[in-house]
Design brief:
- By secondary structure, this protein is an alpha/beta fold.
- It has two domains: about 35-195 and about 340-355, Rossmann fold (3-Layer(aba) Sandwich); about 200-335, 3-Layer(aba) Sandwich (Rossmann fold).
- Helix content is about 45%, strand content about 15%.
- The protein is built from eleven helices and ten strands.
- Strands 4-3-5-6 form a four-stranded parallel β-sheet, with helices on both faces. It has a four-stranded parallel β-sheet with strand order 8-7-9-10, with helices on both faces. It has a two-stranded antiparallel ribbon with strand order 1-2.
- Strand 5 (about 155-160), helix 5 and strand 6 (about 190) form a beta-alpha-beta unit.
- Helix 6 (about 200-215) runs antiparallel to helix 11 (about 340-355).
- The chain is globular.
- The protein binds ligand L6N33NVT and fe (ii) ion (2 copies).
Amino acid sequence: MNKIVPVPAGTVAAQPGAGTHLPAGHPPVKVGKIGVLIVNLGTPDGTDYWSMRRYLKEFLSDRRVIEVNRVLWWFILNVIILSIRPQAKGKDYATIWNNERNEGPLRTITRSQAEQLTARIGPLDDRLVVDWAMRYGNPSVASRIEALQQQGCDRLLLVPLYPQYAAATSATVADAAFDALKKMRWQPVLRVAAPWPDEPAYIEALANSITTELAGLDWEPELVIASFHGIPKEYFDKGDPYHCYCYKTARLVRERLGWPEGKLKVTFQSRFGKAEWLQPYTDKTIEALAQSGVKKIAVITPGFVADCLETLEEIAGENAEIFHHAGGEKFHFIPCLNDSEGGMNTLEAVVKRELRGWAEIG
Ligand SMILES: C=CC1=C(C)c2cc3[nH]c(cc4nc(cc5[nH]c(cc1n2)c(C)c5CCC(=O)O)C(CCC(=O)O)=C4C)c(C)c3C=C
Ligand SMILES: [Fe+2]
Ligand SMILES: [Fe+2]
């Protein structure tokens, strides 16, 4: 046990300070790298019934997402929701599917964000390794943490891809990471990035995106809707800060544009179930605006770091249709920041901010 043997070339000492020697029988472990793991919500592996069902089951079984009584929810989920929703939502996903790669856009965009982040920060410190994962579906958080550790990452920066924290999103990403760490003998040190509702690079990117998109139209919207994903009102009543973060982002963007109040209106989309969610609702607001005579609007979705079902199908598709049916004439959807220059400036700024003390890269 105490016998010291030389480490084979190319392997790193199992323990810091062990120098070039390992105790006999101790497996060599790589150390010294810093992993940056960006994590978005998730996406099904396919649009067929079983892929959709697997994905929705994992997602909707998360106690952070659905806080209803466990026994009651087991019945509702397994007997009602999972017999109807996979088919209906599979059809919706099919309308936005990336057929070339056979995956949802969220996965395509998140991969590209990780690649571009690597190109931006990789050359600044050769200890940095960037990777990406999905909270639900694949690649899982646990599998990527394991892969990063195998590459020698003994420090991990986890970046939940939600500018505005909510327990149902950011916290559940941290849960997944800690669950993975629970099973490890030698855990990497974990840092979780703080949300960035007021990050200057993010506000600048959103304001620039609005300006550029509107400049490309031959009409001017009477107002712009900033539509954020909703959460049940009960979660807000219990103290979730999400609502305040959304309003803060919207206010800062409006101020940056020099717009009066009312020109950028906050709404909440993607209601699920019968309970009350954060109001005002996006679909009801858009319908009421058209009915009251508003003819031209644009919609931006600042809470989504990447385009997905909720932006492409629900806003650019369903809500545009609602607006036109109710008498509206011009509707423009402003894409998410995705892997654009502004989107990447935002992620780079957040990652650099959160790496301080680990890597001094500006
Ligand atoms: C049922 C409760 C849900 C809560 C609470 C919730 C919060 C929440 N979600 C996002 C971001 C995304 N949600 C997406 C899809 C999606 N969301 C829910 C339910 C809740 N979300 C469901 C059931 C689904 C799947 C589609 C459906 O069946 O309607 C997505 C898109 C994923 C994709 O692949 O395109 C995102 C992104 C946030 C930011 C949030 C709270 C702050
Ligand atoms: Fe959602
Ligand atoms: Fe939706």
